[in-house]
Amino acid sequence: MEEQVKAALENVRPSLQADGGDVEFVSVDAEGVVSVRLTGACGHCPMSQMTLKMGIENYLKKEIPQVKEVVRVQ
Question: What is the pLDDT of residue 44?
Answer without folding.
Answer: 84
